[in-house]
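User: Sequence in, structure out. Go.
Assistant: Echoing your sequence, followed by the structure tokens.
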Amino acid sequence: MRTLAERLAGLKLVVVTGKGGTGKSVLATALGHRLAAAGRSVLLLEVDPRENLHQLCGVAPSGGEIVEVASNGGGPLYLQNLKPAEVVDWVVERQVKVGAIVRRVLASPVYKRFVEGAPGVTEIAVLGHVQRLVRGALHRAPAVDTVVLDAPATGHGIYLLTAARLFGETVGHGPFAELALEVADFVGSPEKTGMVVVTLAEEMPVQEAIELLEAFEEKLGRRPEMVVSNALYPELGEGGANVADELWRRRREVNEKELERLERHWRGPHLRLPLLALDDGPRLVRALAEELAPGLEKTVDAE
């Protein structure tokens, strides 16, 4: 038997997804801190061009580079905001090799339309980049044990994990098809890739979480490593008479109702995190990392 922390630490990629607005990015950052504290070399990876994770880590924007966030007694923690188009360009450079021809291909309007419009290319680029990182095949990159990916929200998150297989089997041959099938095998391996679903204990987020759990089973034949119900209203003692207490109690009752509904569909690890009176930033990340710690020490069935 392994603890949940040991299970996650043994993975090469942890994909954190869920409905937008559930605190997915904060949870991904907190989880990265926990894994680094356990001695792993961890990279927090985001693909949102607006760059958000650097604010949670208290560092300057990465600008596409890999930057070190912390190294405080455990393993190092790094951050990168990835630009998928640059990874697609790398595939072309690796295959063509002749500089003048590479430049012509990359400048071609046809190629640009392919990168921007071909289904699955961006997803393959992101996961191909992760593969190169954990294999130590990325030039000038630090050694990385685990990548924690702040994935797109719900529907886009499941597409991220299924697009490579579909692309590879549809196209059949060529450098992108080969990379797609490599990526699909990487994502499909339960010893290399795991998923974490983040939700709020509210009606719509829980419904999306349930649908996402069903999609994982149907399209990947997989279950996530855990579900995290974030930002729960603390319980109040009996006898609160003022309006604020009553409103708070009603929100907690909604939380309890939706937690019960979620657990009728999910029997695996389920961590509950409290709503904290902290702004987004390093203090919130550190506090949630501490809240995560006891739940991550629960044992899970060995794969």
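User: And one key feature?
Assistant: The domain at 2-300 is CATH 3.40.50.300 (Rossmann fold).
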